[in-house]
Specification:
2 domains; 25 strands; five-stranded parallel sheet; NAD(P)/FAD-dependent oxidoreductase
């Protein structure tokens, strides 16, 4: 399909995450007059029609927040932008064209090419997996709202299995939960889900909190490096006080046949393995003619343009942006939400400056610290040089992320859910059948169910 003729400037945004949403929102605000006059248009390509606020995934998995309130509709927030649900499979920047895969192209087997004038690459990252036996078959990720809700259902279903069996081996495997990766995602997910399961156990006559085994596996000698060594050690102490095993300097070597094998020689049955051991750049970056660094991220300037290339911009996980506030030469900004949100605003402004032949701004932001939740009323924080733990850190975690989640609508709904959760008991219902909604009908119609209705590991 040949690129269509155009008279207006088209800004193509690849990705609907933090950077994609906030850059498009900034452009929508700054180019309002041009969009109204049809002199400019913004096209956002995203695999999902919503942005997921990932810091709330652990609370969504624990049932503290409704899954609908963890996501923000792109069509509602970006009302003046064109939203294309799909993915970019390759980009030829020399010709200013992107090849897209959409639900429509998958139906007819064709490809769609979209031309552009300015390109914003913000596809985010994907889980970094290793060739570990059994991981692809049995591992559970934790990057999307679907994975978070699936994990919640899975944990509750394992408790149902343990409660209804007399087989001690099956019971032990069902009540063993292994989390691989000691970063924010792994520690927060483990903390919230262990908290939820411990609460849910009171409604099972033959499952007690001490029957469950929660294990955190981390290859390095520390967890949560972002909050500092002291708070990292406190986190290990706090988790172990809750009878959570923390195995440092340990790697997962196999989880085939529902048997976990660790590098320290431990071997035990487990029906739950959650993989949160890092991320890697999105594969579309390798399918472009743009310069990448040794880690597969786009080489960028402090002004968030792709180094040595005109009309191409990037930020967030996909971009290697020089940290102009760092004392060490050659240091890059960390690929986290704190930088992504701020980079998006500067990126949007710089695209407008470039279109209007105005001087560009330099992105400069000194990292202020990090906060992490370890479950209800428990957390750690290292912000502006100050170290907090327990309830104050947990409260700061909630306040900070409530202030950062997009739209007043979402802020109000999340706050209302927190207030209601404080007044009433936790919800412990598992809706695992949602993952295979046609299974029961297929069986009733005389066919064979296409998937396990329970979605079990």
């Amino acid at each position: 399909m040949a690129p269509e003729p155009r008279t207006c400037v088209r800004v193509l945004v690849i990705g609907g995450g933090y950077v994609g949403l906030y850059t498009a929102l900034r452009l929508q605000q700054r180019l309002k007059a041009e969009i109204r006059k049809r002199e400019a248009e913004i096209v956002v390509v995203s695999p999902e029609p919503y942005m997921t606020y990932q810091p709330f995934l652990p609370e969504a998995a624990a049932g503290a927040i409704s899954p609908r309130h963890v996501v923000v509709s792109l069509r509602r927030v970006l009302a003046d932008c064109q939203i294309v649900v799909g993915e970019a499979t390759s980009i030829d920047h020399a010709r200013r064209t992107a090849t897209l895969s959409t639900p429509a192209t998958e139906e007819n087997g064709r490809t769609e090419q979209l031309s552009y004038d300015e390109l914003v690459l913000a596809p985010g990252s994907v889980s970094r997996t290793l060739p570990i036996p059994g991981l692809a078959e049995h591992g559970i990720g934790f990057k999307t709202v679907e994975e978070a809700i699936g994990l919640r259902n899975h944990v509750l279903e394992q408790m149902d299995i343990a409660s209804s069996t007399r087989d001690p081996a099956l019971r032990d495997a069902a009540l063993t939960f292994v989390f691989v990766g000691g970063g924010f995602a792994g520690v927060e997910a483990l903390g919230e889900l262990e908290d939820m399961a411990r609460y849910a156990a009171r409604y099972y006559h033959n499952v007690k909190p001490e029957d469950m085994k929660w294990i955190l596996v981390e290859a390095s000698d520390r967890i949560l490096p972002e909050v500092g060594a002291e708070m990292g050690r406190y986190t290990v102490t706090e988790l172990r006080r809750r009878n959570i095993e923390v195995r440092l300097k340990t790697r997962l070597e196999s989880c085939a046949d529902r048997t976990v094998v660790l590098s320290d020689g431990a071997r035990f049955p487990a029906r739950t393995v959650v993989w949160t051991a890092g991320v890697k750049p999105h594969p579309v970056l390798a399918a472009t003619d743009l310069p990448l660094n040794g880690r597969g991220r786009l080489r960028c300037t402090p002004r968030l343009g792709v180094d040595g290339v005109a009309h191409a911009w990037a930020a967030g996980d996909a971009a290697a942006v020089p940290d102009v506030t760092a004392k060490e030469p050659g240091r890059e900004t960390a690929p986290n939400a704190q930088h992504a949100l701020r980079q998006a605003r500067v990126l949007g402004d710089n695209i407008v400056h470039a279109l209007r032949d105005e001087p560009l701004e330099t992105y400069a932001h000194k990292y202020v610290g990090s906060v992490a939740s370890l479950g209800l009323h428990k957390g750690v924080a290292h912000v502006y040089g100050r170290k907090l733990k327990g309830y104050p850190a947990w409260f700061m975690h909630r306040v900070y992320h409530l202030s950062r989640v997009p739209t007043f609508n979402r802020k109000a709904r999340v706050l209302a859910e927190w207030i209601l959760a404080g007044l009433f008991t936790r919800e412990i219902v598992s809706l695992g059948s949602l993952e295979h909604p046609r299974a029961e009908f297929e069986l009733a119609a005389g066919g064979k169910a296409s998937g396990d209705p329970k979605g079990s590991f």
